[in-house]
Amino acid sequence: MERYDMHTRRIPEATIRRLPAYLRALTLLDEERITSEALGQASGYTSEQVRKDLAYFGAFGTRGVGYEASVLAQEIRRILQLDHGVRAVVVGAGRLGTALVRHTDESSRDVVIEAVVDINPAVIGQQVDHLTVEPLERLETLILERDIGMGIIAVPPSGAQAVCDRLIGAGIRAILNFAPKALVVDAPNIFIQHIDLTLEMQALAYFVGSAAHSKP
Q1: Which of 35, 41, 66, 72 falls between 20 and 30 A from 203, CA-CA?
Q2: How far is the C-alpha of 100 from the C-alpha of 213, rounded, in Å?
Q3: pTM beyond 0.85, yes or no
């Protein structure tokens, strides 16, 4: 089966975002075979959605029997290009950046943080798990030397755009941005995911209020 190639296949972004949920469910369930219904329940989606998403990449299951779990997990990892590992760099060694390094070390074997950099002399040289915080001026060198493909921005909003520009200039094509700032990117082949925890909590506040107002 050929490797998934974003340049030759038009796959909905939402489908790609659901694949890691399927992979996690397969890992946690630890079953030899699994139906689309069971996989959907474990990942929070419908069986129809599971079948539709997987159909973009080929026929992995047998009607009435389901999927061989280990084979499907292997195929999803291949589709996501996790089978050869993804290396990342964290820019910003504050509380959030160091927490991300430690969390990834504990929970993920597919995305490996290879470096963490900062501009603050007070933290440069400190250890974050197995990594030593390095100066920001080494960013491009580290990306090249360690074959890093993903950048994680965990800096104040005032510096986020400059960091983004440097990551892209160094060849990074996927960026996870935790800075509460919208980043401007002209290159069409760069993917940026913004995660603003404050906005997420503010949005959830609506549902807290709705529940309170609905009480008799």
Answers
A1: 41
A2: 37
A3: no
